[in-house]
């Protein structure tokens, strides 16, 4: 289970955790979250969002927002993903998430193997969402925010099953792409969309 060891190792002051959701889907934005937890008031049960049930994530999202010192979200649009590529769009979303924090942080812990080029001292932590409580909290907020966006988008584009697949390339999603073509929320730079010769 994640703990505060990484946060305590890197700085005695305010340390933010950052994670993203939505790098792999064929449709929708990439969303990042940044969280500075209160070490004396941390919700129980924080973990990598992928290891939690939807019901547990929803409960923890509310607790994180209520009890964290501050949190922020950053979004990179489909247009930004297609123009920058998914890596740099993800870095942009992470930067926006940290910029949205209402408290400045002394250090940022980033899930993954590289950090954005930004003004904050930062450390990349591979599988950080399973190791660092701050990153785990960010992973929950990012996933919950993006899932809501895709469920809302599914109402306007009902063929693709986004309410369940959240934009990932499920069999239903790919079949709908072949039949109906891409929507404005599809990532034209992603091969499964481009290779359908529908553009």
UniProtKB/TrEMBL annotation:
Keywords: Cytoplasm, Endonuclease, Hydrolase, Manganese, Metal-binding, Nuclease. The lineage of its organism: Bacteria, Pseudomonadati, Pseudomonadota, Alphaproteobacteria, Sphingomonadales. Belongs to the RNase HII family. This is Ribonuclease HII. Its main location: cytoplasm. NCBIfam families: PRK00015.1-1, PRK00015.1-3. One of its GO terms (biological process) is DNA replication, removal of RNA primer. Pfam families: RNase_HII (PF01351). SUPFAM superfamilies: Ribonuclease H-like (SSF53098). One of its GO terms (cellular component) is cytoplasm. Manganese or magnesium. Binds 1 divalent metal ion per monomer in the absence of substrate. May bind a second metal ion after substrate binding. GO terms for molecular function: manganese ion binding; RNA binding; RNA-DNA hybrid ribonuclease activity. InterPro entries: RNase_HII (IPR022898), RNase_HII/HIII (IPR001352), RNase_HII/HIII_dom (IPR024567), RNaseH-like_sf (IPR012337), RNaseH_sf (IPR036397). It is found in: Cytoplasm. PROSITE patterns: RNASE_H_2. HAMAP family: RNase_HII_B (MF_00052_B). Residues 13-199 form the RNase H type-2 domain. Endonuclease that specifically degrades the RNA of RNA-DNA hybrids.
